[in-house]
Amino acid sequence: MLKDSKTVWNNCLKIIGESVSEKDFRTWFEPIVPLRLANNVLTIQVPTLYVHEHLENNFVYLLRKAIDAELGPEGRLEYQVVIDKGNEKNRAYVINIPTNKTPQNKDPKVDIHADKYKSPFDLYELEGNGYASYLNPIYNFDNFIEGDCNRLARSAGMAVAQKPGITSFNPLLLYGGVGLGKTHLVQAIGNYIKQHDVGRFVLYVSCEKFTNQFIEAVRNNNMQGFMNFYLQVDVLVLDDVQFLSGKEKTQECFFHIFNHLHQAGKQIIMTTDRSPRELVGFEDRLLSRFKWGLSADLQQPDLETRIAIIQKKLQAEGIAMDIDVIEYIAHSIDTNVRELEGVIVSLMAQASLNRREIDLDLAKRTIQNIVQHVDKEVNIEVIQKRVAEHFGVTVDDLKDKSRKKELVVPRQVAIYFAKEYTDFSLKSIGYHFGGRDHSTVIHAIQSVNDMLKTDKDFKAAVQEIQKSFKTRPNKYSN
Ligand code: ADP
Ligand code: MG
């Protein structure tokens, strides 16, 4: 006799009805619609993901018992959930989710051989009794230096790490320029959760990888497997979300994963290189979800934070360095932390290669090489050199304490350009001009501005130097 889904489900309901309260029965089971029975898989439609989650968490053994009685031990249950009813613009979207936990197979993560759970990661490894997290254990909160530039992001990250999925910071979106610590911080959150709650499935994935997996899944006709894998994640860390810009299909898929995880109280953590307001090439419905939780930015670290970061790195490497060298580096590299690290690594290499101490001189030469190499724009050394050449003085003269008029004007012009062309703070500019304080720097800039208004020859000279830079000031770029 061929069974049909309706009959099978009605029989299941009888079994279930014997074991649950009337209230539970009405709330959770009556709204379910049996859809089909094929290959011994019974598909039932549940109204929301929340209902699906609740059934799985509270009644899975009972469901299993009913399915066993009706379809035998090989019988399976599959939920269909309407995730998105659709509208004129977006079509309706439903997903099918196989039942997760069954008495024969208590932990779905162990069932890695079932195709539908197969990890889309190329090399899928197991860690403990679950999937690998792809987190890098070197990133933690202890070695993430706190400063004004990252305080909100760091403390929100800590709150999420302690209570994933429970705080209102869901999703947590960290944004900021390259090399400011986004990846470090989200990995620290992931590592913290894993350490404190081994049962949780934390997954770190870059959006580039996610996109490639998605394309691969489409190509291999394995969307279901791909979705099923991601729907099991408890804490999803998606790095560099801006990468999804313009990728409509990948975004759509992420949208559904996002909805499912979010509704089920799972934690989502994302990073982008700019604020959600500035993201382009994203569907509105996805962008609006990015704003549901908390967005926190990471800014360029201030001087004290840069010094602390350098010290921490040196300590980790077991290397000693004079404080004046550390300060010189901190004053010279203020773009991002990755560049700061690059300088330290290269300094260490130089020192061991040439068997010499890391002193100020070595630091200066290394930074000159690196900065000019990384950043083709005008930097403070170039400014000082060109200005000195133009006025027929030396770079050292510009840093000298002397107040001779023939030195004061070139010095002020160089300071003026430093302000125009670099992102250095007034304090750091002063540092590069013989350790002058910031009021001297302000005064210099003011004097140049005054002279530009009144003195035509002076203005022509300034313009000529400016031409030699062949690039517009930082301030006016973008
Ligand atoms: P992003 O992902 O924002 O481009 P990363 O997280 O990769 O930046 O950071 C670049 C490097 O700088 C990493 O090696 C990271 O450990 C380091 N770094 C960034 N911010 C900090 C910080 N506040 N404390 C310590 N190290 C940091
Ligand atoms: Mg990163």
UniProtKB/TrEMBL annotation:
Residues 168-298 form the AAA+ ATPase domain. The keyword ATP-binding applies. Residues 1-90 are annotated as: Domain I, interacts with DnaA modulators. Signal peptide: none annotated. Residues 352-478 are annotated as: Domain IV, binds dsDNA. ATP binds at G179, G181, K182, T183. Pfam families: Bac_DnaA, Bac_DnaA_C, DnaA_N. One of its GO terms (molecular function) is lipid binding. Residues 379-448 form the Chromosomal replication initiator DnaA C-terminal domain. GO terms for biological process: DNA replication initiation; regulation of DNA replication. It is found in: Cytoplasm. Keywords: ATP-binding, Cytoplasm, DNA replication, DNA-binding, Lipid-binding, Nucleotide-binding. GO terms for cellular component: cytoplasm; plasma membrane. The keyword DNA-binding applies. Belongs to the DnaA family. Domain I is involved in oligomerization and binding regulators, domain II is flexibile and of varying length in different bacteria, domain III forms the AAA+ region, while domain IV binds dsDNA. Oligomerizes as a right-handed, spiral filament on DNA at oriC. PANTHER family: CHROMOSOMAL REPLICATION INITIATOR PROTEIN DNAA. Plays an essential role in the initiation and regulation of chromosomal replication. ATP-DnaA binds to the origin of replication (oriC) to initiate formation of the DNA replication initiation complex once per cell cycle. Binds the DnaA box (a 9 base pair repeat at the origin) and separates the double-stranded (ds)DNA. Forms a right-handed helical filament on oriC DNA; dsDNA binds to the exterior of the filament while single-stranded (ss)DNA is stabiized in the filament's interior. This is Chromosomal replication initiator protein DnaA. The lineage of its organism: Bacteria, Pseudomonadati, Bacteroidota, Cytophagia, Cytophagales. The gene is dnaA.
